[in-house]
Amino acid sequence: MVLHRNPPRLFGFKSKIFVTLTKTLRSVRVHFPMYQSENNREDSERTAFRRTEKKYKLYYDNNASSKNKKNKQPKPVDLTEVLDFRSILECHHRNLELPQGVVVLQDKFSSPVFSLQNHPGFYFIPGALSIEKQCDLVRESLTEFPQPPNRTNHNAIYGPIHNLFVAAKEGKILVEEKSPITSHECSSDFDCRDGEEWKFFTEKEASLRKCKSVSGSSLLRKLRWSTLGLQFDWSNRNYNVSLQHNKIPEALCELAKQLAKPALPAGVEFQPEAAIVNYFASGDTLGGHLDDMEADWSKPIVSLSLGCKAIFLLGGKSREDAPLAMFLRSGDVVLMAGEARECFHGVPRIFTDKENAEIGHLETQLTQEDDLCFLNYIQTSRININIRQVF
Ligand SMILES: O=C(O)CCC(=O)C(=O)O
Ligand SMILES: [Fe+2]
């Protein structure tokens, strides 16, 4: 599944208009399934960025004898060209050597900060987040961050959903109920669902209601994004300051301010105002895009990785520039500021198999009874939190 952040109803009658609109935008941050269709091979290989995405994307071996997807083997991928900042860090610790084009910024920081000669404004901090911090952020990303008034990809269909993670854990079912709410009472245009209201019920209660329903666990699996702080309106591609919102939680704000420092001149402080939390399951990708809706590009985007290992592609200012592939592991932090903000980037692959996911440290930490549900989720998922200053 390709990560898409537009309200799904746009795939209905509005889809043609929306496709035309998005094609005219300079940066299409969203990849639509129809753009990437396997039937449309030419299109998927059109640019250098697309070709590299295709190289690393998850494909299954067609020749595998079993038709059962669970037993299908992923096609092997050549990972020899993927930059690995963890081994660069280990090597640097051993003998202070660095590969050509990689620069180390500061060593007094507990984790060194790497930058790339060819990509000014891009910074990589391997293992910047402690294991405890990673676990806290995984828990928060699943319980607190998707809570209303924060919006998620589910808002457009179901309206605000409270306590999705707990409901999924308890086997609850979301059921549609007709209510007297009328359109003019809705909080925003793109959130109106003409008198429908969805509520969680136990399986037994839901079966008695005979209404449209969907399981909490299926909704959790399909959770693609949530937004914190100022809310981003994906259909209009702007921050809609009139939407009700909470400030970014204090601890996340402080963390982002600290982490942003290497990308800012001394004395300039980062002001976190909005964040996007991306949830990836096996096979999910985030297509090449630019993040260009913020006013001041000298301020970094602070991007935190949690859970399964991923491949991140850092391209140039054109999709024709061949991107650099690098691994992103749980605890790694990326900063993109200045010129790097004009560079296309995306995530073509996450690794959910035991050998490649590299989440052993989370598995040893999340052992308490209460944590098993988080462990269960993160063993086959990746979460990315990227924090922005909007104005
Ligand atoms: O998942 C990632 O590491 C990158 C996310 C990203 O680029 C975005 O949300 O704009
Ligand atoms: Fe991005």
How would you explain this protein's 3D organization?
- One of its GO terms (cellular component) is cytoplasm.
- Residues 271-391 form the Fe2OG dioxygenase domain.
- This is Fe2OG dioxygenase domain-containing protein.
- Fe cation binds at residues 289, 291, 345.
- Its cofactor is Fe(2+).
- With 391 residues, this protein is α+β, with helices and mostly antiparallel strands.
- 26% of the residues lie in helices and 22% in strands.
- The chain contains 14 helices and 18 strands.
- The strands form four sheets. Strands 1-2-3-16-13-18-11-8-4 form a nine-stranded antiparallel beta sheet, covered by helices on one side.
- Mean pLDDT is 86; it is low at 4-39 and 182-189.
Mean pLDDT: 86
pLDDT < 50 runs, ≥5 residues? 4-39, 182-189
Class by alpha and beta content: alpha+beta
E-strand count? 18
Properties at a glance:
391 residues; alpha+beta; nine-stranded antiparallel sheet; four-stranded antiparallel sheet; 14 helices; binds 2-oxoglutaric acid; binds fe (ii) ion; ferrous iron binding
Topology:
Layout: H1 15-24, H2 33-36, H3 41-44, H4 48-56, H5 85-95, E1 102-104, E2 114-116, E3 119-125, H6 131-143, E4 151-152, H7 155-158, H8 164-169, E5 173-178, E6 196-201, H9 203-209, E7 213-215, H10 216-221, E8 225-229, E9 232-233, E10 238-239, H11 250-260, E11 274-281, E12 286-289, E13 301-307, E14 310-314, E15 324-328, E16 333-336, E17 345-350, H12 354-357, H13 360-365, H14 372-378, E18 381-388
Antiparallel strand pairs: 1-2, 2-3, 3-16, 4-8, 5-6, 5-7, 8-11, 9-10, 11-18, 12-17, 13-16, 13-18, 14-15, 14-17
Bound molecules: 2-oxoglutaric acid (AKG) and fe (ii) ion.
